[in-house]
Amino acid sequence: MITLNAQLTEQVSIAQVLSNTTPSTTTPRRVSMKGYTRATVVINGLNATTVTGSAITLKQTTDIANANTDEKAVAFTTVLANLDVGASNVLVPTAVSNNTFTTTTVNSKEYQYIIEVTADMLDITGGFDCLRLGTGNAVATTISAEVILWGARYGKVVPMAIDSSAN
Fold first, then answer.
1. Pseudo-torsion of CA 92, 94, 100, 106, nearest 10°?
2. Can you list the residues of the chain whose pLDDT is less than 50?
3. N or C: at which end does the chain have fewer Cβ atoms within 10 angstroms?
4. Does any domain span residue 2?
5. In sequence order, which residues have a C-beta less than 8 Å from that of residue 86 and are 6 or more positions away?
6. Would you say residue 147 lies in a domain?
7. What percent of the chain has pLDDT over 90?
8. Does the residue 6 lie in any domain?
9. Counting Cβ atoms within 10 Å, is residue 88 exposed (0-12), middle (13-18) or buried (19+)?
């Protein structure tokens, strides 16, 4: 899928779906997986003190511009986690319960989570071909997230669709 004969940006679409923020009433942007077989969700965070963490889920939707009325959970059981990126760059597979996990609550840590999604994890036959990160309210943690769409279905990169109205 990925080739050394082309630049990465010619083979994938990268969307920033959540800019550095403490999740409260936050709704990260949606991305369309039409034309792609895979999505990699990268969540980066920085904790201050007295942290509560943020509950993280994945939502599948039928439209990138819909007002979140047609969402349902994406089933996933594992997330790759690095709970202290200042100390190492090792990602550890971590079990997820009920399609949700909470970011680390250790004070003063920078962390990263990665969730791999394949198109067959979505209810394509039901019209669900878009993806959104769900973030729960948090205290004293700043989170940003990107979605990398890759594995073009038709042999070339398809322009990415993103809901720019979300925040």
1. -70
2. 158-159
3. N
4. no
5. 109, 110
6. yes
7. 74
8. no
9. exposed
